[in-house]
Queue: 4 jobs
Job 1
Amino acid sequence: MGVIDHEIGTHFLRRFNERFQVWAKKRDKYEVKNCIRTEEGFACTNQQVRIALSETQGNPFLYRQALNYYMACKASQMSFVELFNDIHKYIDDKHSRWKFVLRVKRGLSDTSEPGGLYKDQVYLEGAVAIL
């Protein structure tokens, strides 16, 4: 349900609402800037609301977003294997660790080299700016 809150409750509603705004399909004319950091930050906090209201899902921390931010920074210096081993201090489960590293290293032709997809940093940056 948190993903639904994130994707539909934030992204879909923002896109749907934009159709009715004066700047719809005229972003350049009205100098409407890209708001990816703010939108993703809001989506993350929106997703955490369900966790906060649920008695069974735990605490609404931005742990995943913080870990993705950390991994994006480290990916610029480490290979897939080095990053996989580095985050062992945060994630014991090898399958979960694999999925986290795979996400930041996706799109690279040679994962033994430093580098990664750094877009995931906007989730934490936006959430921190909003909060």
Note: The radius of gyration is 17 Å.
Job 2
Amino acid sequence: MNKKELEKFKKMLVLERDTILKKARKTLDEEAVFDTDDLPDDMDKASTEYTQSLAFRLRDREKFLLSKIEKAIARIENDEFGICESCGEEISIKRLEARPVTTLCIKCKEEQEKKEKSFEA
């Protein structure tokens, strides 16, 4: 992979990271605190608590993605980005464009999923 492609992926990952962090800050600033005295009845309170809980669960999922993004950026900086951690082959650009945080080529990912399915059965 050439430097131009690596820069494109780094910009994409940094933008996604910044978006996640911005959403997290917004959640903390706007949704983290509500005054129960402002809510006229129990239904409003329950609805607000549900919405707040959902927002925090979404942010928790994003925290996991944020970790993957940081690792992908580190792989770019260490010249390891786009190399399958399982077989050592290059991951296709098309796959990286669809899932830039991936660490496995499509063949190894499919094999991993088959193994996971066999454990579930």
Note: The first helix runs from residue 3 to 31.
Job 3
Amino acid sequence: MSVRAKFKLTSITEHEGTARGLKFSAVSTDDTPENQRYHKYTPSGTLEIWVDNPPALEQFKIGESYYLDFTPAPKP
């Protein structure tokens, strides 16, 4: 089973070299039916990750929303 959340990129922080810190917040507006659904079940939350992959970083824009899928990883 997997769980999907919807998060909005709120900031990008530069770090040494090409690494960037990406901070996301759970979608908290009810301006669309989809956002109402996500906000109801994930009313708050934050995620912060560091990415050191320039092509991957090009995919992220402040203010845009992204799905976050939680799927169990196989045990080693």
Note: Residues 3-69 form one domain.
Job 4
Amino acid sequence: MTHVLADGTNETAVWIGLGIPVAVCLAIAVIVWSYFRLQAHRADAVAMAHYRKLAEEAVANQQEVRAQLAELTSHVRAVEQLMRDVG
């Protein structure tokens, strides 16, 4: 059953005429929102990959510094022992 408004306009045609553009605009808005959310996730993933690489480099550098510090400590002990023997 079709409803006809007082001025003779078909109510179903009005709803279809308004509903389709609204649905299309809503779909476009959801697609655009999803796209930007995906881009944000991708940017976060790239930043996290850089952070992991930086953390790995920091650990490697820290291990190198510890090895150098251990070597320096042994040299200082040798110098201290030499000073005790001399003095």
Note: The mean pLDDT is 91.
